[in-house]
Amino acid sequence: MAKRPYDSERAEAAIRELLLAVGEDPDREGLLNTPGRVSRAFAEQFSGLHTNPDDVLDTVFDENHAEMILIRDITFYSTCEHHLVPFLGKAHVGYIPGPDGRVTGLSKVARLVDGYSRRPQVQERLTTQIADAMVRRLVPAGVIVVMEAEHLCMAMRGVRKPGAVTSTSAVRGIFQTSQPTRAEAMSLITGR
Ligand SMILES: Nc1nc2c(ncn2[C@@H]2O[C@H](COP(=O)(O)OP(=O)(O)OP(=O)(O)O)[C@@H](O)[C@H]2O)c(=O)[nH]1
Ligand SMILES: [Zn+2]
């Protein structure tokens, strides 16, 4: 978690300064409210710095369910920490409960993805953090997280390759040790 709370006054001053730096006039009518708007947008985009995203997994049920649970196509929006532009795509999160059969609400898994997405990120770390949070809070037999994303820093600028998709995965527990289990998850993820 961030050491300091979100400072909207500082953010607004910085955005005004940035507008000046790029050669804009922050006092022209269309831009008057822009520092405030951008600051509110940043507060939302980076809200995951000020919470512990794992806390959403506090809702757990002892279901004694020992089979795979996989939530596919969770849309996420994150912010590339190198260029501060979005990367966005789909997250797929699967797990097999541990011996105590602990499961969480389906929406909580999507909230977990959101929590870690709302930070300056790289896709690899985002993927790992989601998997490790699942391990910490649910103590499952295994976890698999696959994320597919388009990075706007690769699309709208720089190398300019719109449509390039980056896939990352993090596997823990039985998904690491059992090839058939991993293959079952992958077939559910790809829909084949
Ligand atoms: N591994 C990884 N790289 C990322 C991610 N998001 C952006 N990048 C890359 O971070 C790199 C930063 O490279 P630099 O050479 O420092 O920055 P740059 O000069 O703006 O690079 P270009 O994007 O190639 O123009 C780029 O290659 C980006 O594509 C991510 O989530 N994971
Ligand atoms: Zn980037």
UniProtKB/TrEMBL annotation:
Occurrences of domain GTP cyclohydrolase I (ranges): 12-189
Pathway participation: Cofactor biosynthesis; 7,8-dihydroneopterin triphosphate biosynthesis; 7,8-dihydroneopterin triphosphate from GTP: step 1/1
GO terms, biological process: one-carbon metabolic process; tetrahydrobiopterin biosynthetic process; tetrahydrofolate biosynthetic process
Pfam family, any one: GTP_cyclohydroI
Keyword Plastid part of the UniProt annotation: no
Family: Belongs to the GTP cyclohydrolase I family.
HAMAP family xref list: FolE
This protein's name: GTP cyclohydrolase 1
Organism: Nakamurella antarctica
